[in-house]
Specification:
It is a single chain. The chain has 465 residues and is an alpha/beta fold. The protein has 18 helices and 18 strands. The chain has helices at 16-25, 39-48, 65-74, 90-96, 111-137, 151-164, 180-190, 208-216, 233-236, 252-264, 290-295, 301-307, 323-339, 348-356, 362-376, 421-435, 440-447, 451-463; strands at residues 8-12, 32-36, 53-57, 80-85, 103-106, 142-143, 146-147, 170-173, 198-202, 217-218, 230-231, 241-245, 266-267, 276-277, 281-286, 310-313, 345-346, 381-382. The strands form six sheets. A five-stranded parallel beta sheet has the order 2-1-3-4-5, with helices on both faces. The longest helix is centred in the N-terminal third of the chain and has 27 residues, at 111-137. The chain is elongated, with a radius of gyration of 31 Å. Pfam families: AAA_lid_14, HTH_8, Response_reg, Sigma54_activat. InterPro entries: AAA+_ATPase, AAA_lid_NorR, HTH_Fis, Sig_transdc_resp-reg_receiver, Sigma_54_int, Sigma_54_int_dom_ATP-bd_2, Sigma_54_int_dom_CS. Keywords: ATP-binding, DNA-binding, Nucleotide-binding, Phosphoprotein, Transcription, Transcription regulation, Two-component regulatory system. Residues 8-122 form the Response regulatory domain.
């Protein structure tokens, strides 16, 4: 095996004198240079190793260098191939670009030309490796019930991955409809408790006088109507996860009992005289600002600190980039299959409306809209007139590729006209790509976003052209 501390550069050159010259050019570079004098030797090396860069002479004594390039291309080898060509075969070198060649250099060339080309090829390999690592580790478009490939959701997935293995309490915040129960369920499914019960309790949906019984259970005769002993959520969730949704709606008296349960791991059923033990992982959620509730005197500060150990904030749908269309397309197909309809896509103007809407009800509202369309209409493509109000009346977004209308002249004393946010974003991305000579991964790194985000935005803008 080759050492991996330095990237490997494979030089395929049958001329010993030229190989020595190229070796001298690269002597000071932090690479491991491997020399092969024939196509057969190069192919044998490639069968065992994947160099970062291949410097490939097209004219070899036993085969055409193009055959080696095609072999690398067909097998998807992660190599940046640089073609070394004589003046008369520049056209051939250009053809080689169709098979994935990174660049070509024409003989004779000096040390600077070779060094710049090799460094560029290595930089491309590094960026490609970073992009692939991101896609493999973080570039998930679905996760335990979530749908979303945006950077905001990748951060949520990573937080769940980190928090799931612990027993520490998780406090989920987010607007209504962002998927707080989905998040709690994902934490449970990702945790060592996944084979134990997951019990969800909505503190806002249960009358206050029954809430204590719902959490802790009751014995027979504990109150009017208690005809038999009943287990509460605490007993049902033993060994697993208890999810308390809308925790800020809980009565103050019950908050003190919950605090004692969290601290001691023991609880008493309503009407019982003996305490019971339970091993529970607590996850809670609210669509309010929990600290504001503490300051307003509606939520106990000591309970807040007990619960707010690992906070996870779910982003609203309007901050999730292209996730709107990802979710909409997925559920359009799913609901169409359930209802026996033929819908399979959205018309372009409909996608513009969906992308431009603020979605105050978040994912829940989006799913309701898709279900409404599928149930009430027929066809293969969803058009804007099929959308329920106010979406059916919304003006589609201006196509991203179109030039905005020229602004009317304004007096020098006035502030410049405010440009649409999508246009400022488009200009920033295009300028970054131009500054990086078309290298999108490098532009993404400088913009501190993922390359996949830029590719999706470019695709969306082209689709709107």
């Amino acid at each position: 095996m080759l050492p991996t501390a330095k990237p490997t550069v494979l030089l395929v050159e049958d001329s010993g004198s030229l190989a020595a010259v190229y070796q001298g050019y690269l002597r000071e570079e932090a690479v491991q240079l491997v020399l092969k004098a024939s196509g057969a030797e190069a192919m044998a090396f490639l069968a065992l190793h994947a160099p970062s860069v291949v410097l490939l002479d097209l004219k070899l004594p036993d085969m055409d260098g193009m055959d080696i390039l095609k072999h690398i291309h067909e097998h998807g080898m992660p190599c940046s191939v640089v073609i070394i060509t004589a003046h008369g075969s520049v056209d051939v070198a250009v053809d080689a670009m169709r098979y994935g060649a990174f660049d070509f250099i024409e003989k004779p060339f000096n040390a600077k030309r070779l060094l710049v080309t090799v460094r560029n090829a290595l930089e491309r390999q590094n960026l490609s490796r970073l992009v692939e690592t991101y896609r493999e580790n973080f570039g998930r478009d679905s996760y335990h019930g979530f749908l979303g490939a945006s950077l905001a959701m990748q951060a949520v997935y990573r937080m769940i991955d980190s928090a799931a293995a612990s027993k520490a309490t998780v406090f989920i915040t987010g607007e209504s409809g962002t998927g707080k129960e989905v998040c709690a369920d994902a934490i449970h499914k990702q945790s060592p408790r996944k084979d134990k019960p997951f019990v969800a309790l909505n503190c806002a949906a249960i009358p206050r006088d029954l809430m204590e019984s719902e959490i802790f259970g009751h014995v027979k005769g504990a109150f009017t109507g208690a005809a038999a002993e009943r287990k509460g959520a605490a007993g049902l969730a033993d060994g697993g996860t208890l999810f308390l949704d809308e925790i800020c709606e809980m009565d103050m008296d019950l908050q003190s009992k919950l605090l004692r349960f969290i601290q001691t791991g023991t609880f008493q059923k309503v009407g019982a005289s003996q305490a019971e033990q339970a091993d529970i992982r607590f996850v809670c959620a609210t669509n309010r600002d929990p600290w504001a509730e503490v300051q307003a005197g509606r939520f106990r500060e000591d309970l807040f600190y007990r619960l707010h150990v690992i906070p996870i904030a779910l982003p609203p749908l309007r901050e999730r980039e292209q996730d709107v269309l990802l979710i909409a397309r997925h559920f359009l197909r799913e609901y169409a299959r359930e209802e026996g309809k033929a819908f399979n896509r959205f018309a372009p103007e409909c996608e513009n409306v969906l992308s431009g809407y603020a979605w105050p009800g978040n994912v829940r509202q989006l799913l309701n809209v898709i279900r409404n369309v599928v149930v009430l209409h027929q066809g293969e493509a969803v058009t804007q007139d099929m959308l329920p109000p106010p979406l059916s009346r919304a003006a589609p977004l201006a196509p991203a590729a179109a030039k905005p209308p020229a602004a009317a002249p304004t007096p020098p004393a006035e502030a410049p006209a405010i440009q649409p946010l999508w246009l400022l974003e488009k200009q920033a991305i295009e300028q970054a790509i131009a500054r990086c000579d078309g290298n999108i991964p490098k532009a993404a790194s400088l913009l501190e976003v993922s390359a996949s985000t830029i590719y999706r935005k470019l695709q969306a803008w082209q689709g709107g052209a």
